[in-house]
Amino acid sequence: MRVLLQRVSRAEVRVAGRVTGRIERGFCLLVGFTGADTDAQVTWMAEKVVGLRLFGDAEGKMNLALADVDGAVLVVSQFTLYGDAEKGRRPSFIAAARPEQAIPLYEGFVRALRERGLRVETGEFGAMMDVELVNDGPVTLWLER
After folding, report:
1. pTM of the full predicted structure?
2. Fewer Cβ atoms within 10 Å of its own Cβ: the N or the C terminal residue of the chain?
3. Where are the beta strands (DSSP E) in the chain?
4. Is 109 a catalytic residue?
5. Which domains does the chain possess?
6. Which candidate in 6, 41, 78, 122 is catalytic?
């Protein structure tokens, strides 16, 4: 499981011009799965996201988590995180999980975040999405489990 996390002051995802998810302060998570991923990895990743202290405290140090700043999460499925461009000019996506594997993992991840008290907005799995965001920082992390 791979997550590209961006701390944002605003993020929105649209499908065919229709807004499917919008948040203010929080994290925009681009999430990809491989065929070997498990529910245990999903749980670990949800705990990691909830616990990350990436927001500034009164002294400007990154000591505050999402819950401390009333932050939200925008989760967007992104199979291209498993793109392999090592050879040739056209990436291979063989490592990305097939939809029948990835959809339950994606839904489980969203559910796990909500169960931990976060407000979670999403895109639409498998859809062509327009994602617009304003980085806060910028602060960007690559998480993998």
Report:
1. 0.96
2. C
3. 2-15, 18-23, 26-32, 55-56, 62-64, 72-77, 119-122, 129-144
4. no
5. 2-144 (3.50.80.10)
6. 78
